[in-house]
Design brief:
about 0% helix; mainly beta; about 110 residues; 6-stranded antiparallel beta barrel; 6 strands; single chain; Thrombin, subunit H; globular
Length: about 110
């Protein structure tokens, strides 16, 4: 992929779980990596759930290979933040295991 196709600069964040003073589990997100990426929507749908309209968008994010992301145990809980949008990472694919590019299958949250 040519560099010009990576036009969206965002941050990959990973969850960090801590306990508050009452012993309740608190999940916050901390920095994992910054990355230039190409965000491509695949499906957008709207449906009714419990008398509410729910909009769901899924897509894929293509970016250069980041060591540690493709085989991270927690990558399904990671998020990609671009502007005011947050994408939940559902899967990380390393096409043909060439370690050149990663494809993140995401759901907009």
């Amino acid at each position: 992929m040519r560099a010009g196709e990576y036009r969206n600069y965002g941050e990959i964040q990973q969850p960090a779980e801590t306990f508050d003073a009452n012993g309740e589990l608190i999940t916050t997100y901390i920095h994992f990596a910054y990355a230039w990426a190409s965000i491509e929507p695949l499906i957008g749908r709207e449906y009714w759930s419990a008398r509410q309209t729910v909009a769901e968008t899924t897509g894929k994010i293509r970016l250069r290979y980041i060591p540690g992301l493709a085989n991270a145990k927690e990558n399904k809980k990671m998020i990609y933040v671009y502007g005011n949008k947050t994408y939940d990472i559902e899967a990380v694919i390393d096409p043909e295991n060439k370690h050149i590019e990663l494809v993140l299958l995401v759901k907009e949250s």
